[in-house]
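Possible race condition, two jobs.
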Amino acid sequence: MKDYYYSLLVFSVFMVIVTTGSRLIILIRDYPINFMTMKNFTVGFFYDLMNMSIISIILCIVLMVFKNKSFLLNIVFGFICLLLFLDYNYYLQFGTHLPYKSIYYISNIENLQSSIISSFFSLNFVLIFLLPIIVINFFMKKISSLNKYLISSKKKFLLIISYFTIGSISGSYSNSALDKNINDPVTIPFINYFIWSEKATELKEVSMPIEEIKLVENNLSGSKSNIREFDPYPLIRVNDSKCSDKNFNQKINCNNNSKINWNIILILMESFRATDIGVYSSLHSITPRFDKLSKEGILFRNFFANGHQTKHADVAIYCSIMPNYGGAIMDHFPTNSFYCLPEFLKEQGYSTSWIHASDSSFDGQALFLLRNGFDKIIDRNDFRKNAEKLGWGFTDKELFNKAIEEIRKEKQPFFTSIVTITNHHPFEVYQDYDLNLGNREVHKFMNTLHYSDEQLGVFIEKAKKEKWYDNTIILITSDTSWHGESIKKANNYEDFIRIRSQIPLLIIGGPINNSTVVERFGSQIDIAPTVTDMLNLSRTTPWMGVSFFEKHLNSFAFTNRPGMYWSIMTAKGSFHLENDKINHFFGDLVGESQNEYEKFGRALIKTSKWLLQENLYWPTNNVKYN
């Protein structure tokens, strides 16, 4: 009978090599090499030793009873390499290790299919998965002759004690040398992040933040309603329209004709990162269509995504709700009562539709959107069977053609939102749109961004020929920025945040008289109140955003990615909280001003959490109040 504890030693060594190696690739690729990063990397190495010891102890015990020991070791090592490969590809897109919540997407594997297949044809698959498996099998065979020597029970016991000792010392050092930085992929191995990230999104009961609610209320526009039923709902405000021809330097023709309501088209361009758009100072000219359109309308220079995924954008844009700093609203509060822009417009006589070229049920979007005012959901199931596909769905060209077709059927006035998908990993695009910038992920991203820009321009050209165009306002923005690599490098933490959260906002259409650039700060929650003001409609709503027509309130932008950062930005300065522990201030903020920014940011987060927990955004009785 052969003994496989020599093979186990080889397994242990190679496990440390591959887990440490994956973090080393990230370190060399994206981090400056200095004392702090090397210290963090060393802490991660000891975490790797701890994980190796725990897994090896378990295998020591299992190998005592498992017959095909070599097979077990190869399967476990192969599985670890596969996880490392998937984790690294996730990091390239989102900047963190693979989180626990990713297991929820297994049921939506069809949507992820193109991204997964694309990853298996990359060099990363060879370096992180295939090569380690080949090398460890080579060494396993080299030492196979040693397996004929049986190890005594005493030596097996000593081996287990050795693993236990290494694991204990390594874990003690890692946990005592540095506060756990759960979101730093150089410090924290993927195994630890995967486990800890589950707790990071757990909902914890919060008590009513009285002072924080007051602070948020002070920044709301409008006045409190005299309807007694609204008393328990602290954000509900009554607002008259702020629209006037004096706004935006008289560039917008406010709707003063009660018999004609402007149509609204709201376009969400997938991952349309501002730093890669020409008029936002991109280093490359890859968005000529958007750049040209910006000369025809109102361009907002300092506009930001409130969250980092489409499901966060949905609640921010359509409902003017701050994305939860924790578990996503669509995941944890899908049945809460909200009052969103589509529902508001529907009550004003608008037909409402949402058009997407992929799966509308992904992340629970369809249910949320139908519950909150969209009458019609058009997705991949409504496209012709031979429509062109790229990546996660039908091409943006097919999407915009479908949008023209569907809008022609709509009863005016209409509110239609179009959500693109081509500029999503795996960033597949036709050869004609290859910019020949290189083969890195960021270059593929820029190719698809260029393609999406072209299709946007073609859509607007076609829209201008439609009968409804002269009565239609078109807002062009993005669901998120992109957290992957950027050609433009960050000089400081504020640049880091801008790259990962700044998105475009452009308003064009028949009622827009001329072009202008707006420098004031804003974010996705400001879109809904701005739309109602453009339509010259008064409203009673619980919206956290501030209309761009509002003059007396200080405008601000809020963005967040739970556990990694949250930021408050204004024209005066900005505050950023990194990893829930490091403060960054920029601009003219000193002393008390710094405290005020931090207090306001924390107030937004705590107020949002409590309102979601208590379901106190809007009454649940579905009574019309507008």
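Job #2 (started ~2 s after job #1):
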Amino acid sequence: MMAMVFFLFLFSGAAKFALSHYEINEYDFDRGSFSAKGFDELAKDSDGVVLYLGASSGMERMIGQWCTYRRYRLETAYDAKEQYTLVLIDGASLEEEDVDLLFQFQQNHIPMVFGSLPSVKLIESDAKLASLLGISNIQQSAIDLDGMTLYEDFLVGGKVIYQAKNKEEQKQQDLNLRIPWLVLNSGSKVYMDGILPEDYEDTDAAYKPPVIWCYRTASDTVFAVNNNFMESDIGLGMLYAMERELSTYYVYPVVNTQNLVALNYPSFTDENSKKLHEVYSRDAAAVLRDLVWPGIAAVSEHNHAYPSVCMSPKYNYDVTAEPDGEKLAYYQQLLREQHGEAGISMETVGDISLEEKLAYDNRFYRKNASDYRLLFAYAKDYDAADAAMALDAAGFSDMIALLCDYDPSKNMIDAVDGKQVLQITNTGSSHTYSEDLRTKSFQTALGYSVIGQDFSEILYPTSKADQWEKVYDRFSRYTNTYWQDYDYFDETTVTEAARRCNRYMQLDYDIVTDADTIQIHSDATKENPAYFMVHTGTESIRSIRGGSYVRIDRGRYLVTAKDATVSIRCREKSQLTFWR
């Protein structure tokens, strides 16, 4: 009887292996209709004109990226004949002679965003400027905060208190906590404010130092940021959150993709054996198979993610041992069971050029996985155009996507030389307060996240922090904790993410609102849907035709368009605000 059970167990395992089609990439598709073009190649009609007044800086670059996604034309010189959708101001570079222009915008009812505040001296000396900003008085020219509170219904992900109360949280605290302490006029809506030190614990909550707010009068709307957030990509989602306040209904497309990526994993060569036996009592193959993979699988299952891996036949190309092709088939089966996907890593270690590495790798993959179409590559910090050229030259002709390290000087998503370019938004083993805000920003703006964890350090640890137990503790803790706030977005592999980014960039759409109805016109179909963030203000969605929706938070929904026209009916609900 036991022999029969054992036979059935072995047979079921063999059948599962045989029927899994692990040697085929389940995310392969007909690339005849796939055309990756950069934003600069896509001729899209402008949906409005945005004026930026200020120094050439990180703020201007961030605003430029936002205008690209919103399909606005960005101008940096004032033209009295132009009708501006929005004016963004670097208040820190504002001079006394510039102030009169602001009142012209006010008279013309043009919304303004102060990405940074004018100097305390200028605000104190100009009562009209202070009034424009909604500032009644300056309590202190500067105060060192104990933390900050970001309120719900501003950025996607809900309310967060950024206050370090222990040593571990102190490591995460990297926000600028020194700001002017301002007191706002009544009628100001505060999205983020400061947490005062214990010495000020009896201070009325209404006088807590404001960090981000909106001041609205009958004639104008002014947003202001009392920190440096708009100097970086943190400001990207904040601009979307501010713009939603300007209309009853606010709709914009998003990518809708969340990705968990193992970088430089797996490899298939026995290397650094002596050190690995000292640390793990295992060789490289056993470390990657028995320690690392179960960890990746556990985090993936906890987050309902489909893991993507960026393989490399070797980590160190100075090692003379050859990679074992049979191990590749083993990992292909594991990935298939998790509905994951394999791509390649372009990272090089050792005395070898990128071109030589790619040629070596291509021979290995053609020999051991000829039927598996490799569709994406981890380009690390290589220039995307150079990486695309190198891949083509080495014979990786099926590649449609490049995964790159985060670079704040470039668009989060773009395309170059026919390949979609996606940036990694977070590492799996780091999550500071500014990184958390940046994540919320990308999720608000694009519905987009890529967690990329580099596992090469596991085989070449230089300290205890590089060893698997420490790496896994950080990786699982940060990913499992902070990714839960975004489970309304879809989990995908890198190839599906690239296709959705491509869809987002080339999407044609039009938004029409009337009374209690929102209509989204696009080229969406059931087979090729499009995704939109829909804000309904104080109303909720009553019904939808031509698509489906998921509620994110109060008055904010993720809508999937499955037809050329999506019709949304809304209904009034109770209004809750944070107006002072």
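The chain has a mean pLDDT of 92.
Logs attached separately.
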